[in-house]
Specification:
The structure is a single chain. Strands 1-3-2 form a three-stranded mixed sheet, covered by helices on one side. The chain is mostly helical. The chain starts with a strand and ends with a helix. Helix content is 54%, strand content 11%. It has a domain at 33-110. It has helices at 33-48, 52-69, 72-77, 80-88, 94-97, 103-110, and strands spanning 4-7, 15-18, 21-24. Helix 1 crosses helix 4. It binds zinc ion. Residues 38, 42, 82, 85 line the site of zinc ion. Zinc ion is lined by residues 38, 42, 82, 85. Keywords: Membrane, Transmembrane, Transmembrane helix. The chain crosses the membrane at residues 6-26, 47-64. This is Signal transducer regulating beta-lactamase production, contains metallopeptidase domain. It comes from Pedobacter antarcticus.
Length: 113
């Protein structure tokens, strides 16, 4: 998958996927394979949701999680999109075997946390 890397220091996270760009807070991170794999998983989520609905859902899930936990870090980590990415970022074959809409599995899991 073709993508472009951009260093953007004010980024409020280590990295962020905005298809077809990966934004990095620091130049030191731009070759971190784990981070890139994590962001590639987000690319796949974005593409299967036709990009814009991904951001809308991401925001809605975040706000629901934030309302439940009252904690930004927890709300971010409980996102089904993040759970899928964190659970599989160390598996460099994951995107070859991943089923479409795999994040749905984490959506239903996260309701019980
Ligand atoms: Zn992520």
């Amino acid at each position: 998958m073709k993508y472009w890397k951009i260093v953007f220091r004010p980024l409020p996270a280590t990295a962020m996927a905005i298809y077809p760009f990966i934004l990095f807070k620091s130049r030191n991170q731009i070759d971190n394979p784990l981070l890139i794999n994590h962001e590639m998983i987000h690319f796949r989520q974005q593409l299967e949701l036709l990009i814009l609905p991904f951001y809308l859902l991401y925001l809605i899930f975040y706000l629901i999680n934030l309302a439940k936990s009252g904690n930004h870090d927890q709300a971010y980590r409980q996102s089904c999109f993040e759970q899928e990415a964190y659970a599989n970022e160390q598996n460099f074959n994951y995107l070859k075997v991943r089923k479409s809409y795999a994040w749905l599995k984490f959506l239903f899991n996260s309701r019980h946390q």
